[in-house]
Design a protein that fits this description.
Radius of gyration: 21 Å
CATH class of the largest domain: Alpha Beta
Number of domains: 2
Strand content: 15-25%
Bound molecules: beta-D-fucofuranose
Largest sheet: 8 strands, mixed
Strand order of the largest sheet: 9-8-10-11-12-15-17-16
CATH architecture of the largest domain: 3-Layer(aba) Sandwich
Distance between the termini: 36 Å
CATH topology of the largest domain: Rossmann fold
Number of strands: 17
Length: 363
């Protein structure tokens, strides 16, 4: 028990240090409420036992996902006192439910879920609850059940609102009065897709922009390319903005537009907006291919491990933790945006002009 507590405490300290060192991975704020202590199996386990954690990951669809997996695997290492069972659910919701049920059957100490879609969770979370296994949710949200202890992730609606607020100011700056927009959405039913879609649409509706079409590219490069190829055929000459809900879709969209002879980015005919701001995405912002990239921070592993360590030590944890996420732009003409965020507050946030140093510091 003593050894376990020492492990847990040293992990908490390591996490605090890591969080101080890299500013984008510092949680911005803790949201509503506080979850009770888990009374976990690990906390009552014997001396040198590792804490077993089952992680049902979405899949391997994007650069963001690769960074997320690495972050969780590093944080839940054996050296940090964990035995991590990692399952790549390959973007298959049924497989993800099965993975969670297998974790329950194995009687792991904790379950971590990055939910592919936001609904369909209450039954399996009730089963975990009945088995006394605390569940921590990361990244995407679960919207039809509150039977989890804690969540750490991003405010996806704010990402969409910020993208819309930037587009409004950018169009005004460039004297573009009519915006005809094509959207390539992420995986249908994921909270990332829902939030980014709704946030951006709110600004589009308020400003009278036309969203010509909005289809899913499933957060993959291949998906983004396919959707953009069909958009180029159907809407050639009719659009001047493309919004991709992640960087990998944007890479596919770039290829499709190049093949169709359509120019995009800073010197092009089409404004290209993206989300995630991974290294390759910011490289394209620096090159002027993507005009603006709204970060979603995947480095959630240390925060999640911190939550598990606190629960194992019998401490209480916050029900929600939001990641801090900057907005990146290719040109330095605009330095900030002001918009009403999802909580109803008017906020003014900086726009980070991308330089090589910014790319080098990216995930
Ligand atoms: O934006 C995308 C990934 O859930 C926030 O999933 C995540 C999204 C991310 O495939 O690249």
């Amino acid at each position: 028990m003593k050894k376990f507590l020492a492990l847990a405490l040293s992990l908490v300290m390591a996490v605090s240090l890591a969080a101080c060192g890299t500013s984008p991975s510092t949680p911005a704020a803790s949201g509503s409420g506080s979850a009770g202590s888990a009374g976990s199996a690990a906390a009552s386990g014997s001396g040198d036992q590792l804490i077993t954690v089952g992680f049902a990951q979405v899949g391997h669809e994007s650069d963001w996902r690769t960074a997320s997996t690495k972050s969780v695997q590093e944080a839940f290492s054996k050296d940090n006192g964990f035995d991590l069972q990692f399952v790549d659910c390959d973007n298959d919701s049924a497989a993800q439910l099965e993975a969670v049920r297998n974790f329950i059957e194995q009687d792991v100490d904790y379950i971590v879920i990055d939910p592919i879609v936001s609904t369909g969770w209450d039954t399996v979370l009730t089963e975990a609850d009945d088995a006394g296994i605390p569940v921590i949710v990361i990244d995407r949200t679960i919207d039809d059940s509150d039977k989890y202890i804690s969540w750490v992730g991003s405010e996806f609606t704010n990402e969409g609102l910020a993208a819309g607020a930037w587009l409004k100011d950018y169009a005004a700056l460039k004297g573009i009065s009519e915006l005809n927009i094509l959207v390539i959405e992420g995986t249908t039913g994921s909270s990332a897709q829902i939030g980014r879609t709704n946030g951006f649409k709110k600004l589009a509706d308020e400003n009278g922009w036309k969203i010509i079409d909005s289809q899913s590219g499933d957060f993959t490069q291949e998906g983004g390319q396919k959707v953009m190829e069909s958009y180029c055929k159907s809407y050639a000459g009719q659009f001047n903005v493309v919004v991709c809900q992640n960087d990998n879709e944007a890479f596919g969209a770039e290829d499709a537009m190049s093949a169709a002879g359509i120019s995009y980015g800073v010197d092009g005919d089409v404004i290209l907006i993206s989300f995630d701001a991974c290294t390759a995405g910011l490289t394209d912002v620096l090159a002027g291919k993507i005009n603006a990239d709204f970060q979603c921070n995947p480095l959630q592993g240390p925060f999640c491990a911190d939550i598990v360590a606190k629960l194992a030590a019998g401490d209480t944890v916050n029900k929600e933790t939001y990641m801090e996420e900057p907005w990146y732009v290719a040109e330095d003409a605009l330095t900030e945006i002001t918009y009403t965020n999802n909580a109803g507050n008017e906020v003014t946030e900086p726009l980070v002009h991308v330089t090589q140093d910014v790319v080098d510091a990216a995930y």
